[in-house]
Structures are given as C-alpha cells and as structure tokens.
C-alpha cells in the first residue's frame, strides 16, 4: 500500500478539510517529485472561499497553486534537476505544441484553458484549483512546470513566483520607460508587486489608490510616490495634480471592476492593464473617452516564459519582495491564513507545510 500524506482538500464553497492522500511517485520519464515547502495564498483562493463564490474550484482536489519546494526525485529523462534543488512551480505548464504555444503564446495554451466554446470562455486548468495542487507534503508534476532557483532563495519568497511571473509578463506589454508616470488601483499583493515592478522600471510618479490603510503603507514601502484613499479622496483630481494635468502614462487595474477609472486616469494614448480578476464583474466602459483618448488596453493573467526570470529576480533581490510578504502561517492553521487574506489586513501570506 502506498504511503499517505496529509493534505488540505477543497470541499465546496467556503469549506476545506485535512485528509490523508497517497504520496505520489515518479511514473513518467519527465516527472519530478517535489517536497513542498509551502504555498502562498492567492486572491483567487480568497475568491474561491468568498460568499458568494467569485471563482470556481473543483471539489475534493488538493488545494493551493502558488507552491514551491525542493526536488525529491526525478524521472529518467530529467537531466537538468536533481534531488535537493530548490524549485519554483508553474501550476499550469503549457503543452508546447498547440497553435498558441507554437505562436509564442503559451499563456493561451489549449491545455492550460478549458472552455465550452473557446478557451477564453473557460478556465485555466490550474493545479490547486482544478486539479491536485500543493498544500501537502509531496507533489509529482512534469518537468515543464518546474524551474530551478539558487540554493540561497528563501522559500517564502519563492512562493511568490507564479503571481509575480504573471505581473512581470503583463507589465512588459506596457513598455514602461524611465521617467514615466503610473497609477495602480488596488494595493493587495498583486498591486504591491506592480508597484515594486514600476519602481524598478524607473517610473517617476507611482500613484497607488487603496482603501485599506495597512496596504497604503505597504505601497509606500515598495515604491509608491503617493497613496490615495479612494473612499475619502478624489483619485482623478490627484492624478491630474501629480501629472501636470496630463493623466498618467500607465494605469494598472488590480482590483477587478475599475477599468472605467483607468480609462479616466490615463493621458491621451495612455495604456491600461486589466489584471484584477473577478469573474462576476461587468463594468460599463466609457466608449467616448476610450476612443477620443486613443487608450491602449491590455489584459494580463499568466506569465510563462517569465518564470525563469522570476527565479532570477528572487535570487538577485531585484524587488523588495520581503516587504510584500507579510505573514508566514503553518498549514495546520490554514483557516487563519484564509481569514487574514479575506480581511485584507495583510500583504502576501505564505503557508508553510508543517505536517
Ligand atoms: Zn494565484
Ligand atoms: Zn499549448
């Protein structure tokens, strides 16, 4: 009989349980068995546990998708990894041979998305959301999902790799230049990652709008030049004051439904990035403003090729990730982690495996 391990299992809206599951073993030549260090809490996890539920999740799977660990064993074909290597994980590895992969768009891989009509009406088939994920001791996954990082990389920062890859790749589309101005709506972990990336990219003004005081303070720590409480202040007015009445070059939506505000805050030919992910929201777009200002709008979600770069960013300390990571909570107290994330009084939370 196979050995068993404890795992956090998603049991349906608002519920999880600790259950015993078989320890997976290497079966295929390209398999990599990982001893999990831990798994960060994602905004998607909060949306899955929210009432009403804002993101679907498959019942009875091992939960958690932002995980990292070290190699425990490898299949015969895996030559670039060996036991003991620290690794970050892409929880939805692209196939490498579909039309989108071949076109250099692995984020849109046919195997990453499943939808009734087209891939994009569906869902990314993320491990830890639609298949077994990382909140357990051991995971086996194909080599294409596994990226080695240096021996000095800190596990709690490695847990930020997957969301940071999505942010970094999305930001490249905006072509940010030194001296540009930017506005970030929302200073949750994703908004904070964008703030840090914009700072590292040389923006001279980074205006961050966020109602929670804890998060506004964090934004200032990681690079915001000005923070605004949108519940008490007029964000649009402050954007104009900070940008010589022009509007910002770049506006990043890291909440969910604020794209109309982004269109209002950018300068003519300004660029908007929709990154906040709320499947229920249908904002009304001000078409007149959009076309007169010639606004350029981008979407962003996953970042594949950027995974390797993220490993290097973590190793070399390019971004103040220690400041974005605010809590480490053991997996045996997972409820606390979800409650804290749902309270928004935190940055990124890393759940360490302690069973
Ligand atoms: Zn995530
Ligand atoms: Zn593909």
Automatic annotation (TrEMBL):
Keyword Oxidoreductase: yes
MF terms in GO: oxidoreductase activity; zinc ion binding
Alcohol dehydrogenase-like N-terminal domain sequence ranges: 30-149
SUPFAM superfamilies found in the cross-reference section: GroES-like, NAD(P)-binding Rossmann-fold domains
Keyword annotations: Metal-binding, Oxidoreductase, Zinc
Keyword Membrane: no
InterPro entries in alphabetical order: ADH-like_C, ADH-like_N, ADH_Zn_CS, GroES-like_sf, NAD(P)-bd_dom_sf, Zn_alcohol_dh
Protein name: Threonine 3-dehydrogenase
């Amino acid at each position: 009989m196979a050995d068993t391990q404890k795992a956090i299992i998603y049991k349906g809206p608002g519920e999880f349980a600790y259950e015993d599951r078989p320890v997976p073993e290497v079966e295929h030549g390209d398999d990599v068995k990982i001893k999990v260090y831990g798994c960060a809490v994602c905004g998607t996890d909060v949306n899955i546990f929210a009432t009403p539920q804002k993101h679907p999740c498959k019942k009875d799977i091992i939960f958690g998708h932002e995980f990292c660990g070290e190699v425990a064993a490898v299949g015969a074909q895996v030559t670039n990894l060996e036991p003991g290597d620290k690794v970050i994980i892409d929880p939805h590895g692209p196939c490498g041979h579909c039309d989108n992969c071949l076109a250099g768009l692995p984020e849109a891989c046919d195997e990453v998305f499943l939808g009734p009509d087209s891939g994009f009406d569906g869902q990314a088939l993320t491990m830890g959301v639609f298949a077994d994920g990382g909140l357990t001791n051991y995971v086996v996954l194909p080599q294409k999902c596994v990226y080695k990082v240096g021996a000095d990389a800190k596990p709690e920062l490695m847990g930020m790799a997957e969301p940071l890859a999505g942010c970094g790749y999305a930001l490249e589309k905006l072509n940010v230049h030194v001296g540009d101005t930017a506005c970030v709506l929302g200073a949750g972990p994703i908004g904070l990652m964008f703030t840090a990336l914009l700072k590292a990219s040389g923006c001279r003004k980074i205006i961050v709008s966020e109602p929670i005081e804890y998060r506004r303070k964090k934004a200032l720590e990681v690079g915001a030049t000005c923070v605004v409480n949108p519940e008490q202040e007029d964000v649009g007015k402050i954007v104009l004051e900070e940008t010589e009445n022009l509007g910002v070059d770049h506006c990043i939506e890291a909440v969910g439904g604020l794209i109309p505000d982004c269109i209002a805050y950018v300068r003519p030919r300004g660029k908007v990035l929709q990154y906040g992910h709320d499947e229920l929201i249908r904002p009304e777009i001000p078409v007149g403003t959009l076309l007169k200002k010639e606004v350029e709008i981008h979407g962003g979600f996953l970042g594949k090729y950027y995974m390797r770069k993220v490993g290097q960013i973590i190793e070399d300390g390019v971004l103040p990730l220690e400041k974005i990571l605010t809590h480490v909570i053991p997996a045996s107290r997972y409820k606390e982690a979800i409650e804290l994330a749902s309270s928004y009084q935190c940055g990124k939370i890393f759940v360490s495996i302690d069973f």
